[in-house]
Design brief:
The structure is a single chain. By secondary structure, the protein is α/β, with parallel strands linked by helices. The chain folds into two domains: 8-85, 3 Solenoid (UDP N-Acetylglucosamine Acyltransferase, domain 1); 89-149, no CATH class. It has helices at residues 114-127, 132-149, and strands at residues 8-9, 17-18, 23-25, 29-30, 35-36, 41-42, 47-48, 53-54, 59-60, 65-67, 71-72, 77-78, 83-85, 89-91, 96-101, 104-107, 110-113. The protein contains two helices and 17 strands. 21% of the residues lie in helices and 31% in strands. The strands form four sheets. It has a five-stranded mixed beta sheet, with no helix packed on it. Strands 2-5-8-11 form a four-stranded parallel beta sheet, with no helix packed on it. Strands 4-7-10-13 form a four-stranded parallel beta sheet, with no helix packed on it.
């Protein structure tokens, strides 16, 4: 685990909730409905907001942001320019789509990069028996994921 800085407090610099023995340093920010609890630590310009939760012995530091409905727990460490957020999930007419990790989309049980889906979605759709309307739908959803996920 990374060594914690001096200057800790057990309250947020925003409207978020810090409980138990969790610590947030003076340069970090916890806001909205976010919760930091257990022995978790947030420091070094990190931000936790939305409905995110950081718990257990987890550490969020550096310039990392944890937001949405994301949960960081156990002995996890999120740092640097990492993004941790609830994945985008859309139920298409045939299969669900989710951004399974940064720069990737999972459609049904197939995961590919943004670029790979963009290049091959028509051929994949035809091979899977999608109708032309479904192929068009998934092409538009892939474009949406690419726009949001950048």
């Amino acid at each position: 685990m990374k060594k914690a800085p001096i200057g800790w407090h057990n309250h947020s610099n925003g409207n978020g909730l810090v409980q138990d023995t969790a610590r947030v340093d003076l340069t970090a920010f916890v806001d909205d409905d976010a919760r930091v609890f257990g022995n978790a630590q947030v420091f070094g310009n990190a931000q936790v907001f939305g409905a995110a939760q950081v718990s257990g012995n987890a550490q969020v530091f550096g310039n990392a942001w944890v937001f949405g409905n994301a949960q960081v727990s156990g002995n996890a460490q999120v740092s640097g320019n990492a993004w941790v957020s609830s994945p985008l999930y859309i139920q298409g007419s045939r299969h669900p789509l989710t951004n399974s990790r940064k720069g990737h989309i999972q459609i049904g049980c197939y995961e590919r990069t943004f670029a790979d889906w963009k290049k091959h979605y028509k051929a994949i759709g035809r091979a899977e028996g999608y109708t032309p309307a479904e192929i068009k739908e998934y092409g538009q959803l892939i474009d949406l994921f690419i726009t949001i996920g950048k």
